[in-house]
Amino acid sequence: MEPILKDVGGRPHWGKLNTLTRADFSALYPRFDEFCALREQLDPQWHFGSDYTRRVFG
């Protein structure tokens, strides 16, 4: 499903499991890097992190 949606310009919700990386989301969402910086500021120890969120936001 993901390749089909990507081909038509779909943007997955970053909170849903997918195969995209931080670079992919950064290209899709104009302020994604700002969000990642804020997330790092609010949770620098990654208490609310997981393997998935580290791949996407890290």
The secondary structure category is mainly alpha
Instruction: Compute the average pLDDT.
Output: 89
Order of helices and strands: HHHH
Strands, count: 0
The tally of helices reads 4
Percent of residues in β-strands:
under 5%
Unreliable stretches, pLDDT < 50, 5 or more residues? none
Instruction: Report Rg.
Output: 12 Å
Largest sheet: none
Question: Which of globular, elongated, flat, extended, rod-shaped describes the shape?
Answer: globular
Percent helix among the residues? 40-55%
- Oligomerization state: single chain
What is the CA-CA span between the terminal residues? Answer: 25 Å
Can you offer a commentary on this structure?
With 58 residues, the protein is mainly α. Helix content is 53%, strand content 0%. The chain has 4 helices and no strands. The protein has helices at 2-7, 22-28, 32-42, 51-57. The model has no long low-confidence stretch (mean pLDDT 89).
For the structure shown, list the relevant keywords.
58 residues; mainly alpha; 4 helices; 0% strand; globular
Short recap of the structure:
This protein has 58 residues and is an all-alpha fold. The chain is built from four helices and no strands.
Topology at a glance:
Layout: H1 2-7, H2 22-28, H3 32-42, H4 51-57
